[in-house]
Every structure is written in structure tokens, then in C-alpha cells.
Design a protein that fits this description.
Blueprint: E1 2-8, E2 14-24, E3 27-36, H1 47-59, E4 67-69, E5 79-82, E6 87-89
Antiparallel strand pairs: 1-2, 2-3, 3-4, 4-6, 5-6
């Protein structure tokens, strides 16, 4: 699966990156593959998630993402972006947390 993951920028446009997610035997490998900007769509974003994702992108460490986690777990320093539904993790697929 390849999809854009974007946030509303400070000037109103969008900014973000394209993430590639690959199903593996024991989970989902994930990595960002390119920067992207997309025309905004008013009202299509969750404001809280937008701000949280914007902060993650501002750290500049998106290349540290190694997997998409769907299991329930507590947020930790191994989470690049964590919420209740999913986590973009710095832990590679098949590696114990």
C-alpha cells in the first residue's frame, strides 16, 4: 500500500510524505519514500490528529519509521506516531518491543 500522509501546514496548504506499507508474515513493514504536497480539502481532517502528526513531521526523523503496528500498546520512545487505532513504529517487523 502506498499512500500520502499529510498535515495542514501553517500557511494552509498541505505537506507530508508518501508512506509505503508492505504486508510481511508477522506484520506490516513501513517506510516513508518521498515528500508530498496535496491540495487541501476543507473539513476533511481531524484537528487533534493533524496537530499530533504535524509535530511528528517537525522532528524530521520520519526515516526512522520501520513498521505499522495495529496491536494495542502504550506509547513509548519506539513510537514515531502513536494513537488508539495504529502506530507508526521505529521497531522493525519481527523484532520484539
Amino acid at each position: 500500500l502506498i499512500l500520502p500522509l499529510t498535515v495542514t501546514g501553517d500557511e494552509g496548504g498541505t505537506e507530508g510524505a508518501i508512506i509505503k506499507i508492505t504486508r510481511e508474515l508477522v506484520g506490516f513493514a513501513a517506510s516513508f519514500v518521498a515528500q508530498v504536497g496535496i491540495f487541501p480539502c476543507a473539513g476533511a481532517r481531524d484537528a487533534d490528529l493533524n496537530e499530533k502528526l504535524k509535530e511528528a513531521f517537525k522532528r524530521g526523523d520520519e526515516k526512522s519509521v520501520r513498521s505499522l503496528r495495529r496491536d494495542k500498546h502504550e506509547a513509548s520512545d519506539t513510537c514515531w506516531f502513536h494513537n488508539e487505532q495504529f502506530c507508526l513504529s521505529k521497531i522493525a517487523v519481527g523484532t520484539s518491543s
